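Assess this today:

___
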Amino acid sequence: MIPWLTADSSFPPLEMALTEPNGLLAAGGDLSTQRLIAAYLEGIFPWFNEGEPILWWSPDPRMVLFPSELRISRSLKKTLRKGHYRICTDRHFHEVMRSCAVTPRQGQPGTWIHPEMITAYAALHKMGLAHSVETWIDGKLVGGLYGIALGKMFFGESMFSSITDASKIAFVHLVTQLERWGFGMIDCQMKTAHLTSFGAREIPRKLFSQKLHELTAYPEQARKWHFDDEATK
């Protein structure tokens, strides 16, 4: 059994999360900005299907990428050198979320990015906490990602591509910029081969929580993003 959250209840200790399914911590509550910020500050995120109760997760181990450990494949480096794309930030946040929602994913029959989630994260975007990184080619949005920045910590949520490597291009630019800004860790939530190829790795939840609290203790970075090389692409 997991706790059911009411409007005024707080999250249970992370140690109460189930091992199967890995990380399921609580259900219920709401997707208010206050609730979401409190969740991310504790390393908790919502993940549930439309029409079902809100489920809150904190898996152990946790998949993360330390920006200094980014790996770029030889083929992707070749693509990046072409310079045939433009990177933008926060231009079309809603469209990035909608594109992530409709992009088919192997092994997943549906999506957790439904209208309720889009509304909730759009509110965080309006506060300057949720951001999109977008890849544009020939005036078209062809790939991107979105996530949340708190202090010196970035929480990656989802990405999409309509052409080969478009989301990878956005991801590389994101990680490179976060390292310039002194961000210490990117939360990737769960292990995938795709993220592993970039240098992401699993760490124990206890270590993740420790680093998370250190990085989110920095002064708030809520603002519109503008990457160092954004204007030149």
